[in-house]
Every structure is written in structure tokens, then in C-alpha cells.
């Protein structure tokens, strides 16, 4: 009903850019999506994708498939090959359905082109002409497509993967930007950013510095080496593909990719002024006197270190278990040696300074250990529990220096044989108390019980076990090894 109502109101009327189209006196109702849909590309390719002009065959075969929801009117389509040097070749592709079926929605066009032997080598882009579709019933407008290009990758030559490669004796002579750059400002261009380059860098045009092409240029052909050469070797010279600035004056250099079988020689030339070498910055620092631990934690102010190149420098903490250093202050929370350092970073005019390391002691209080074990103990007691305390209240640990007489495990002393057992009690110290230790002698008395040993003796197939203080095999038996 909507269709009939609109047709009765508007009569024979077409909406070129609207949604629908109507025709009076007919039962036709045409949606604009059918009327104005352009023929679209299904596929477009050619083979072979590479031609050698000195080879046996220089014929290239093309196939283009187009689609339209109503049908395709074109019986042929022109294909043009065009190089970056604006050299052109063309051929005609004809539809393959015979007889021609205008209602066929998918139409295949085929054709071939023999490449002239005298054509210039290079990469040629294939583009078709327009393809005309069947107009919708009641419309006089024939939908006409734009030209189509090959978008399928047909070869591995970077930058022209969709093109027809035409070589002459193996050479392509492709005029292609094998690299882009530089990313820094020069006397010829303003600084630009390139997506694959690392962190943006500004060259330092001073004696003693280096210029690495990969830092400032982006290669577009992965397997093609980016090289650098100098035209003023007294001022700047190349070593290991890096430009070294060796004297003051004009430095004229080129960054380039060499001529290959695929690409033409490409270069970027630059003239810069090399000035005197950078010198390390000198810092002026002030030391801090020793501190005491009684009032920890505490915050003390320290002198600030200033440089012309970097302004105020933030110190680096070297003993975080003792203190934390910030710009202008030190937060001390434990006794010991507080260490920190200063170093200015390099700039375009100065090298980084040496590292200036400073320290002071946070003096801890002395402490004592109370450790009074029994002076004598019989070997038959086997063990002795050790107990001790410290002035700081910290944990006391034990060790022995006579491991052949006695041994320690936590707070248990194990007696091994008679003799003088030397036991050391240690307290590691705290944030306010220094470490402490105390050594005592414990006499282990008694007689060590003899130790029995067991051996296995053999005589032919006979086995005999002997258990004794000094075991020996009976006569005729041998000790089993």
C-alpha cells in the first residue's frame, strides 16, 4: 500500500539520491539500491607476475570478474599498465560468456598482452576501465563503475607487491623510496616522526660524537642495508657504518641504499657544522657530618647541587636500608652508613659528570649480651639448651667455632666428644643499637664411648657379617668391597 500511495502522489518520478524510485503507469517499484548500485569487483589478477624481457615469453594473461545485481552490459573492458615513470601499455579484456547473457550477475573478462621487448623495465600497476551495469527496469541510467586496480599481492618486491614486474637482464631499476628520513631537523627539512624509529633523538654535531643512520632514518626494505659515507673525511669519517666526528669544521655526508637488481641507488645528502667536543660537567658537593641514632627516624636538610646544564640534580640513594635521599632532604630511619650519589646527565653541550659518592655514619648505641651457660658439662648429657639476652632486646643467635667438639642448631648445643667447646652468642643489631657478640668456653668432660663398625666378608658363596670396634674378616674370608 505504501508503494501505491507514493506512486499515486508523485506520478512518474525518480529520486536520484534518495531511497526509492517509482514509475507511473507500471507495476514497477525499484529500490535505489538496485538502480544505483555500481558494478563491483570480485577479482582482478594477472599471470605471470614477473616478466624477463630477454626471456622466451613476454605474454601476460589477465582475468577480471565483476558483479552487478541486475546484470552487466559491457562486452569488454580496457586494462592499462602504467609504471612510476608514466610508461603505459594497454590491452582489451573480453567477456567469456557466449552468447552474451545480459542477466548474468557475475561476468568474467579475459585477455592477454604481449609485452614489447623495447619497453622500459620497472613495476607496472594494472588498472581497468569502467564497467557498465544493466539499468533497472523503468530507468534510463546505466550504472558505471570506476576503474579497478589489482590489490592482490603477486610478488615479493617491497613497495610494488601488486604490480607487474618487468625486468631486463634481471634488472628492475625500480625508482622507489627505499628509506625515509631523517627524523631530525636539517638545513633542508623540518623534523618529522616516523612510526618504526626508536625514541626520537637529536644529533650532537660535536667532535667525538657519532651519527648512526638507523637512529634517524626508517628503512622501507628490510633486507636492503642503509649505509653512510663521508665526503669530508678530515672532519668526519665512517667506521662500522657510523659517522665519526673527528675535527671541527664542515661535515658533508650521504646516507644511501646501493643499486641492486631491484632498486635504483637512493641517497640523502647533508652538510653540517661540527663544533668543539663536549666536556664533562663538574659538580660542587658538600659532605654531612655523622649523625646519632637516638632520635630516629628523622629528616635532615642537605645542600642542593646545581649545574648550569641540568639545574638542580636529584641525588640517588645507595643504602635504602639506612636512609632515603631526595632533592634537598635525607630521611634517616636506621643506624649504619648512609650512602648517596650525584651525577648530572649528558646534554647536547656537555657530557655526563662523574659520579660523586657521599656518605656519613649514623652512629648506633653500643649494646651488651648476657650469656652465662654452665662452665662444665658431661658428654653423656648429649645436649645443652642455650639462653642469652641483649640490651636491645633483639634476637640472639648462636654458633660454635669448635665443630669437632660440639655443634649448634638454633638454641640447642649438641655434645660430640670431650674437650673445650667454644660458643659465640651474636646479636645483629637494630636501627638504634650496634651489633654485639660474646664468646664463652664450655668444658665437655667424660669418656667417649667406643664406636662399633660393621663389615661384610665373603668366602665363595658364604657371607659373614662382623661387628666390632676394629672389625676383621676371619681367616679365609675377604672384605667385600
* Anisotropy-based shape: elongated
Distance between the termini: 111 Å
What is the CATH homologous superfamily assignment of the largest domain? Answer: Immunoglobulins
Number of domains: 5
Q: Helix count, per DSSP?
A: 3
How is the biggest beta sheet arranged?
A: 8 strands, mixed
Task: Summarize it.
The protein has 481 residues and is mainly β.
Explain this structure.
The chain is mainly β. It folds into 5 domains: 2-34, no CATH class; 37-167, Immunoglobulin-like, CATH 2.60.40.10; 179-277, Immunoglobulin-like (Sandwich), CATH 2.60.40; 280-363, Immunoglobulin-like; 369-445, Immunoglobulin-like (Sandwich). An 8-stranded mixed β-sheet has the order 3-5-8-7-6-9-10-4, with no helix packed on it. It is elongated and about 125 Å long. It starts with a helix and ends with a strand. Residues 1-34 have low confidence and may be disordered.
Keywords for this entry:
3 helices; 4-stranded mixed beta sheet; Immunoglobulin-like; elongated; disordered N terminus; 8-stranded mixed beta sheet; about 475 residues; mainly beta
What's the SSE blueprint?
Blueprint: H1 2-10, E1 20-22, E2 29-31, H2 32-35, E3 40-47, E4 50-52, E5 59-67, E6 76-83, E7 88-95, E8 106-114, E9 122-128, E10 164-167, E11 179-180, E12 210-211, H3 213-216, E13 218-219, E14 227-230, E15 236-239, E16 242-245, E17 249-257, E18 266-274, E19 279-280, E20 291-292, E21 298-301, E22 305-307, E23 311-313, E24 316-317, E25 323-326, E26 329-332, E27 336-342, E28 350-351, E29 356-363, E30 369-370, E31 376-378, E32 383-385, E33 389-390, E34 396-400, E35 406-409, E36 412-415, E37 419-427, E38 436-445, E39 453-459, E40 462-468, E41 478-479
Parallel strand pairs: 4-10, 19-28, 20-29, 31-38
Antiparallel strand pairs: 1-2, 3-5, 5-8, 6-7, 6-9, 7-8, 9-10, 11-13, 12-16, 14-17, 15-16, 17-18, 21-26, 22-23, 24-27, 25-26, 27-29, 30-33, 32-36, 34-37, 35-36, 37-38, 39-40, 39-41
